[in-house]
C-alpha cells in the first residue's frame, strides 16, 4: 500500500489572502485514498522547507527527505503562483520554489499542488524542469487560477481508488469541481524503460519504474 502526506494553509497572516476550504480539500484526499497515512500538517505547522531539498537554493534548510520526498504522493492545498506555492509562516521564506526542489530522489512519485497558476504554460519547463524531476513521475496542478473549494481532494482519491490512471483521476476531479474557464495541467517525466503515462495508484494497476534520469518532460493542460 502506498504512503501519503498532506499540507494545507488557510491562514496566511498577511502574506496572502486567507482561504476557506483548503483543510477539507486536503483532508478529503487523506481520509479517502487507500493508503498509509504518514503526515498531515496545516496552517502554521505547514512549512515550505518540508518540500525542499537540503542545501539546494537559498535559504537551504530543506527537509523533504523527512516529509514530501519520504512518501509516494503528497497533496498540497493553498495559494500558488508560477514561481512556487505559498505558506503562511516564514519558517524558511514561506514559498516552496522550484529552484530549491529535487523530488523523487528518495521516494515521491506524484504530487498534487492544488494552487493557482503553478503550472502556467509560459516558461513552465524553465521553472519546473529537469532539476525538479529526480525520480518524480508527475506534478498535478493548474495553468490558471482555481477556486477555493472543498471537494477536489476527496474526488481525486475516489478516482484513484477506482482504478483510473493518475492523469485521468486529476483531470476528472478538476472537471467535476471547476467550470470551463479553469484549466487543469500536469507535468510528466519519462526515461528509457519507463511508462508514466499509464501510472495508477499503488495496488490499483500498473505503476511505472521511476524516471530517475528523465530524458523527456510532457506538459498537458485543458479546460475543466
Keywords:
17% helix; three-stranded antiparallel sheet; 224 residues; seven-stranded mixed sheet; single chain; alpha/beta; Rossmann fold
Seen as an oligomer or otherwise, the chain set is: single chain
Specify the structural class: alpha/beta
The major pleated sheet works out as:
7 strands, mixed
Round the mean pLDDT to the nearest integer and report it: 96
Distance between the termini: 30 Å
Provide the fold topology.
Blueprint: E1 3-8, H1 22-32, E2 36-42, E3 73-77, E4 80-81, E5 84-86, E6 95-96, E7 110-114, H2 124-127, E8 138-142, H3 152-161, H4 166-177, E9 183-190, E10 216-223
Parallel strand pairs: 1-2, 1-3, 3-7, 7-8
Antiparallel strand pairs: 4-5, 5-6, 8-9, 9-10
Helix pairs in contact: 1-3, 3-4
Summarize the structure.
The chain has helices at 22-32, 124-127, 152-161, 166-177; strands spanning 3-8, 36-42, 73-77, 80-81, 84-86, 95-96, 110-114, 138-142, 183-190, 216-223. With 224 residues, it is an alpha/beta fold.
